[in-house]
Write a structure and sequence with these properties.
Strand content of chain B: 5-15%
Largest interface: A-B, 15 and 20 residues
Strand order of the largest sheet of chain B: 1-4-5-8
Largest sheet of chain B: 4 strands, mixed
CATH architecture of the largest domain in chain B: Up-down Bundle
Low-confidence stretches of chain B: none
Order of helices and strands of chain B: HHHHHHHEEEEEEEEHEEHHHHH
Shape of chain A: globular
Number of helices of chain A: 6
Oligomer: heterodimer
Distance between the termini of chain B: 34 Å
Structural class of chain B: alpha+beta
Radius of gyration of chain A: 21 Å
Mean pLDDT of chain B: 95
CATH superfamily of the largest domain in chain B: Butyryl-CoA Dehydrogenase, subunit A, domain 3
Order of helices and strands of chain A: EEEHEHEHEHEEEEHEH
Chain lengths: 249, 383
């Protein structure tokens, strides 16, 4: 079975994001970028499925600037087989991303699309769901466990109330949650071998889909600074404050 | 062949992440238990760290010296005990074979060394042979197609886990000094090899050194590296290279200590302001950074010179001498900036202070480096 794994290049999760002075977005100039952590979990899962003999080929696709090739190389070093960059120098909205991915899926005909549940930059949590709708495939989001048998997948999902188990027919879109696995560090020899793997580059325009933005960002701002706490002398004081000031009791 | 820059950066980034996410949280534990956990060793094997200097045809990464230095800078950002786990496979334990081994010897041992399945140690030092490495007394006597080895080695890094030892032994008792010494690969599994209990030491807990005894150990002549009497030459070339590796480690640890000191000085308040605001603290930080940059530049410059095929005996000695003394001074200032917090164990600063002391001693003391530098100057003569 062929698996398609979309990955996104985002601001490194260890970097403190700074807002641009004009509040138009996050300042990415000279900021360290990395693969979105949820995408990394999806890549790891695909590699594990390949190691189990269930998957025969892992195709890694990214939509983004030329530098997203580095992100694809990282995924190839982890065990992906070949890569595809759909180059776009503007940041696409989830619907546009889903449409491009649909076009890629139509070309590649994968048996499964395995992707992160959301990217840590926009936190939209939308592409997987939109993609499944566009393809008319079943979806299983927030996966914490995936078992594939024959033409279906049993997926354990992390939902608010606990764990939900779904059976989805393949092909399907599955999005990875944090506890699905712990991604490996690519081995140094595999990083060197990844350089020799196929990485095709196309332009968004090649797919002829409508990527016009539907959303307008009004402003991006830092979260308000937390006011300092206060110390109370006694438990009674605390209860009183919870009642009168916090209004939670 | 040198890596393209993108691949090199990916490689370094992976090591950087591994050090930050995986190794740094374990520093205190490794020090307390005097052991690097087995799962971490397994991950380091998987990552290919044991084979960074081994030729690709034997399963290694075949990094050049500049790339090795860059990678070791990253490893220096955590406790040196982690690097030590694979350090002998990369350097002194394997390079005799890499530089002087026959194709048959390389094929037999290098793949296992590169994968980390085989751990190697370098056994030169003896009770009466340390800095004076030509005075080795361990004896290797030729009997037919074999050598019989007798003697005792001490302070042998990774001997507790070693499967192979590169042993310097005297094959010609009539020749004094280095010219009577030959190098051998001795498998730990051979009858008559025993390894002593790990020594208790000042720092780098988690890395072990032991005595190793050879009692009528018979090895086939196949196991001799290079010709008879070439052992000293093997040792010196292995050490030249090792000195650069150690220089890089010193730079890495200094960078870590500078980062920690900057963070602490920014946070710690006295007299109503962060201590970073005081010029006496700034002076220490500026000196630490300046010296560290100088050591980094010297190590990289020398590594590039070696990669270009030039002789580096003088420069490698100068690099190791300067970098190891530098990290000693940097660690001392780091303790000073941390003050009381630098003296108690919680911040790990005192641990680094102890850890770095050995850098001025092993793979040639500072004084031996000075001698090498002066001797090279004399040899090169007036220009």
């Amino acid at each position: 079975m062929k698996v398609l794994v979309p990955v996104k290049r985002v601001i490194d999760s260890n970097v403190k994001a700074r807002v641009k002075p004009d509040q138009s977005g996050v300042d990415l100039a000279n900021v360290k970028m990395a693969m979105n952590p949820f995408c990394e979990i999806a890549v790891e899962e695909a590699v594990r499925l390949k190691e189990k003999g269930i998957v025969s080929e892992i195709v890694v696709v990214s939509i983004g600037p030329a530098q997203a090739q580095e992100t694809i190389r990282t995924a190839l070093a982890m065990g992906g087989d070949r890569g595809l960059l759909v180059q776009s120098d503007v940041d696409l909205e989830p619907l546009a991303v889903a449409k491009v991915l649909k076009a890629v899926a139509d070309e590649e005909q994968p048996g499964l699309i395995l992707m992160g549940k959301q990217a840590i930059d926009g936190d939209n949590n939308a592409v997987g769901q939109m993609l499944s709708a566009l393809l008319g495939w079943p979806q299983a989001t927030f996966a914490s466990k995936i078992e594939i048998s024959g033409s279906s997948a049993k997926v354990t999902r992390e939902v608010d109330g606990g764990l939900q188990t779904l059976d989805v027919a393949l092909p399907a879109v599955i999005t990875a949650d944090l506890r699905l696995n712990e991604p490996r560090y690519a081995s140094l020899p595999n990083i060197m071998k990844a350089k020799k793997k196929d990485l095709a580059v196309k332009a968004v325009g090649d797919y002829g889909v409508d990527i016009a933005p539907r959303l307008t960002v009004l402003k991006v701002a830092e979260p308000p600074k937390r006011a300092g706490g206060i110390k109370v002398e006694t438990a009674d004081d605390m209860v009183a404050k919870l009642k009168t000031e916090a209004g939670v009791l | 062949m040198a890596l393209d820059l993108e691949t090199r950066e990916q490689l370094l980034e992976t090591v950087r992440r591994f050090v930050t996410e995986r190794l740094r949280p374990l520093e205190a534990q490794v020090s307390e238990r005097d052991e690097v956990p087995e799962d971490v060793l397994a991950e380091m094997r998987e990552m290919g760290l044991y084979g960074i200097s081994i030729p690709a045809e034997y399963g290694g990464l075949d990094l050049n010296m500049e790339e090795e230095c860059l990678l070791i800078f990253e490893m220096g950002h955590t406790s040196p005990a982690f690097r030590s786990a694979f350090g002998t496979n990369v350097g002194i334990g394997s390079q005799g074979l890499v530089m002087f081994g026959t194709p048959e010897q390389k094929a037999r041992w290098l793949p296992g060394i590169a994968s980390g399945e085989l751990i190697t140690s370098f056994a030169l030092t003896e009770a009466e042979a340390g800095s004076d490495s030509g005075s080795v007394q361990t004896r290797a006597e030729r009997v037919g197609d074999e050598y019989v080895i007798n003697g005792a080695k001490r302070y042998i890094t990774n001997a507790d886990k070693a499967d192979l030892f590169t042993v310097m032994a005297r094959t010609d008792p009539d020749k004094k000094g280095g010219s009577g010494v030959s190098a051998f690969v001795v498998e730990r599994s051979r009858v008559g090899v025993t390894v002593g209990k790990p020594e208790r030491k000042m720092g780098q807990q988690g890395a072990k050194i032991c005595e190793v005894y050879f009692d009528n150990v018979r090895v086939p002549a196949f196991n001799r590296i290079g010709d008879e009497g070439q052992g000293f030459k093997v040792a010196m070339q292995v050490l030249d290279r090792g000195r650069l590796h150690i220089s890089a480690m010193c730079v890495g640890v200094a960078e870590r200590l500078i980062d920690d000191s900057v963070a602490y000085a920014t946070e710690r308040k006295q007299f109503g302001q962060p201590i970073f605001g005081f010029q006496l603290i700034q002076g220490m930080l500026a000196d630490m950074k300046t010296e560290c940059l100088a050591a980094r530049a010297l190590a990289l410059e020398t590594a590039r010179k070696r990669d270009a095929g030039q002789g580096i005996s003088l420069e490698a000695a100068a690099s190791k001498y300067f970098a190891s003394e530098m990290v000693g001074r940097v660690a001392d200032k780091a303790v000073q900036i941390f003050g009381g917090a630098g003296y108690v164990s919680d911040h790990g600063i005192e641990r680094f202070y102890r850890d770095v002391r050995i850098f001025r001693i092993y793979e040639g003391t500072s004084q031996i480096q000075q001698v090498v530098i002066a001797r090279e100057l004399q040899r090169q003569g007036v220009k």
